[in-house]
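Morning run. Coffee first, then this:
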Amino acid sequence: MADNSGTNKEKIKEKVEKGYKSAGKQSIAFKNPPYIIAEASLVGKKEGEGPLGSLFDQVLEDPMIGKDNWEEAESELMKLTAQRVLMKAGLKNASIRYLIGGDLLGQLIATSFGIAELQIPLFGVYGACSTMGEAMSIGAILVDGGYAKRVLSITSSHFAGAEKQFRFPLDYGNQRPYSASWTVTGSGAVIIADHSTKKEAGEKDIVITGITTGKIVDYGIKDSMNMGAAMAPAAFETIKQNFEDFEIKPDYYDMIITGDLGYVGKNILIELLKEKGYDIEERYMDCGIEIFDQDTQDTHAGGSGCGCSAVTFTAYVIKQLKEGTWKRVLFVPTGALLSQTSFNEGNTVPGIAHAVMVEAR
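And here it is:
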């Protein structure tokens, strides 16, 4: 495929310079691209034993994190991550105008209980495993629009909490099919700001240049143990819309990164895009595949959960951008929109995916 990234970049630049904020049907091009000035990632023991283990800010050996139950453990995990990203940015709680966060637990209790003591104005959001993309999108809109100087976007998930809520408590000892993914115990956070900060020598600024907001996509999948198949069509629709809205081709990006499609969803996504004339195979990765070692960690289809894309983005993707390995990425967390009620009533599992355009400058 010919390298048209220069032409693609000029098209986007032209739209932004003319003052267009809306791009196409579902996208926004930021006139004053917000900066990601700090990032943090905390994970559990299993995630720390995976291929990215050395990159996380902290690996927590105790899955209970000193608490009495799984839900309290996830709340503590999110609080610790929020505190870590504030510390890395050299900021106090009062320096953050809004916190935008969410998780997988009912009524977002990990978020609401976890960050309550921080006393930061909160927007609680739910996009299932796409929540990090949603939280970053809203944060970038607020900063670019001049409604906030600094926003903290954060998500979390916990393996045991997710199994208890969506499948079976761990004590049940049920057998997992090979299409099932492993919910990541982890929390990732970024601080999005209207200005840059002093960076390490040789590191680049990281900016959010645009977003493409996903629609709910339902291909009729009813198997809650095969979320990759349920979410891949949503990722396909959002990525295709991003190309169309900005009039670009896949080679505009150094890497296109989905959240947690795993090995099953990855193949579906690649084939769906090829049918529309887009070949992303050479510049594509999935966070659920990268975070675990399939051969040694027995996670079947890969990782999933709100924390999966969040910790992979904050620990690994941003590192590649800062060091100049990649210049532009499309970050596309993916979510399966099911609940205990919808599953028990035999409903399908719709998907959604939110794309965030991130660039090193």
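The chain is about 35% helix and 20% strand. Good start to the day.
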